[in-house]
Amino acid sequence: MLTISQRGHLMPASPIRKLVPFAEAAKKKGIKVYHLNIGQPDIETPKMVLDAVRNSDFSILEYSHSAGNESYRKKLVQYYESVGIQVDYNQIIVTTGGSEAILFGFMTCLDVGDEVIIPEPFYANYNGFAVEAGVHVVPITSRIETGFALPPIEDFEKAITPRTKAIVICNPNNPTGYSYTRSEMEQLKELIKKHNLYLFSDEAYREFTYDEKQVSAMHLQGVDENVIIMDTISKRYSACGGRIGAFVTKNKAVLDATMKFAQARLSPPSFAQIAAEAAVDLPADYFNTTKEEYRSRRDLIVQRLNAMQGVYCPNPGGAFYAMAKLPIDDSDKFCQWLLESFEYNGATLMLAPATGFYGTPGLGMQEVRLAYVLNLTAIDAAMNCLEQALKVYPGKTN
Amino acid sequence: MLTISQRGHLMPASPIRKLVPFAEAAKKKGIKVYHLNIGQPDIETPKMVLDAVRNSDFSILEYSHSAGNESYRKKLVQYYESVGIQVDYNQIIVTTGGSEAILFGFMTCLDVGDEVIIPEPFYANYNGFAVEAGVHVVPITSRIETGFALPPIEDFEKAITPRTKAIVICNPNNPTGYSYTRSEMEQLKELIKKHNLYLFSDEAYREFTYDEKQVSAMHLQGVDENVIIMDTISKRYSACGGRIGAFVTKNKAVLDATMKFAQARLSPPSFAQIAAEAAVDLPADYFNTTKEEYRSRRDLIVQRLNAMQGVYCPNPGGAFYAMAKLPIDDSDKFCQWLLESFEYNGATLMLAPATGFYGTPGLGMQEVRLAYVLNLTAIDAAMNCLEQALKVYPGKTN
Fold it and tell me: Is B1 contained in some domain?
């Protein structure tokens, strides 16, 4: 009999996607759906970035170098320099989105059966890449009561086994918006030194911090061999569809092995490398404008959420996500109910149930993730819907 | 200690790339190098395909659907119809190059430790994707004496074990240029039915056949559940850098599982999907012009090769590769020598040693692959170099 592989079965379905049919049904009924469920920013891609592609004049759409165009990697050196990271261009492998950088890290550094520790809640697709690489994810719980700060180092220590090879952090964090402090990063540094672990640092949201500047894993001294940055232009320049990321490390053995994976798939996309290279030359105030927009949205959504009875939303320091604890029985049921059975002034909202972001079963049942990727007016309207919904939801707990 | 994974060690380095430093050194000495080593066509990407991207007017470079834009998949249905393949748009998952389609197939259909049978010589990167998926490649030798026709079915039968899950073919073939006949495809059909195997059919070069039309695996009757096509626009429209391919099957369970892998990496590149969609509307004579160009090149290169003493080159029916047997001791040494120690009229040529395309150690030592991706004048000049080289190469065997 033709069979599907174990990993084909194990591979998790997207936790958000299962709600899509309900959103589509709501729209068919004429209900407006505010999408706070996904990380697709509504911010326009900078015109000069798109124009770089539109004004290109090559006549053959050729493979690029497997590590990405040399000219782009050299530009990236300037970019990293601007955020306090010193790397050489041959320490950068341009990847097909941040996704591929994560997969490459797992493939290169971990064997089938090895373990990777990830503070939960975490970006759900780490699970998928772990399944592809045959790697076990060991979650360490961070808690909404502490604003999702780094869990105590003792929790990591307890979870480390002889098969532990790496720790993954996302900083600032998706889904919590938490931005790790210098002190937390230093604690992680001591931990990876002590146990000889890799630190995979997903820094997709590097620029989007609202209180303190992001502390990159590459700002840590003395752990050059341990640190790998998984990067992407997706959120930075609102260029998600480009599928351009980067795998950055000073570990030569890791680079050499990863280059073989990069060569097998030939090259990252050529069009979007042109866009990404142009993006490095954006004016210095580009992020300021974008950040101010996100900050206003954060301030509004956090204020509105905390003003609702029984709701708690810690103030996220970065990214464009907020996690809120709601007075509900089950976040999956609630998010489905919002789409299936609720409307307020002809509208409802779509949220991401937090259960999909936890590795520990049963956690996140009262939490939802809100991506503030809509403008202030839309966020306000969506919060009106949520406020009303919490008053009438049959499974409310207060 | 920080370690590299077993697959990081096992992952093969590109068999061609190891010659690159020698080519670069030759160029630094002022020697012109004719590159017959790689599958990067010199044919221009059709202007209307590039213009579709250049004239696009979206303002946010968004994620596409994880299976690719619905509009593109619907266009692809028309394209497949034009080559005698009936599929529904939801039986197509747009991938990041043909590379990703191959990886998805291995990941979805084979478990770690399972076996896949591939007629050798074969596209070297199949090895890489097999390593990533933890799958064993079992090669079955096709021979230059038969023009690299399908090996006898008994050879497949002998190689099948309880762990055999799939057969991979590339049709027309890279590196041999061989185009499987209807009769060979029917034999494969009986084999996969008898043993319940998947047939992964890499049809990257579908349009490039010079004698008979290509027989697609999807032209076979009664094996809808077994067949998966791995496709790509790279060679078809000279659009290698777009990184757009397709995973096509009527097997619902395979599609559902593969969609989970597709969702984990979010989406294929957005820019190049626009290009690929436009390409479906190219005028019907587009392939005729391109094919005639490749056919003239094939005719010239095959004629020139067979006119050289001790050289044998079977006439390839498709793709843009020819495999030649040369009177030499070791193809790796010879290809390096061409770059390092030889020149004729200020020029030399770069070839791909065939050893990298065989899974069985020791095979291909007298064979090289020539990609006829240069114009007729350049091919002629390159053949002049080769003819001269074979007269003076210290390791010649006749």
Answer: no
